[in-house]
Inverse folding.
């Protein structure tokens, strides 16, 4: 099978073609660097995504704090991860880089605060 992808590993957005059978990647073309090759292979075998959202803050100046995943998580877990994030609540003050949800859904990935106004 053949699949056309747009690489999201950097803003250039190279068009990549992946030939594969099942979860076996046969060839990757169109990428202009190794990151594109890695992105394409991961996208076929186990697609992952970073998540950015907000978590409620109690007792702070602002009602929410921006958060993100510390690393990409499997695409299939995005909805469950969002449920965890939406259910979370943190007490002020919150520090940049503070772990808000450790090891979310057993992925080994943390949900961390990204920006404090
Ligand atoms: S293949 Fe490399 S240069 Fe092209 S979009 Fe992906 S990371 Fe950027």
């Amino acid at each position: 099978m053949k699949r056309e992808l747009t690489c999201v590993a950097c803003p250039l957005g190279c068009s990549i073609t992946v030939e594969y059978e099942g979860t076996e990647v046969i060839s990757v073309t169109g990428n202009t660097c190794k990151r594109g090759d890695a992105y394409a292979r991961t996208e076929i075998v186990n697609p992952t995504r970073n998540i950015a959202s907000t978590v409620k803050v109690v007792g702070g100046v602002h009602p929410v704090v921006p958060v993100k995943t510390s690393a990409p998580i499997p695409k299939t877990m995005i909805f469950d991860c969002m449920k965890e994030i939406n259910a979370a609540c943190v007490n002020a003050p919150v520090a940049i880089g503070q772990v808000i949800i450790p090891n979310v859904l057993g992925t080994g990935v943390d949900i961390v605060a990204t920006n404090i106004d």
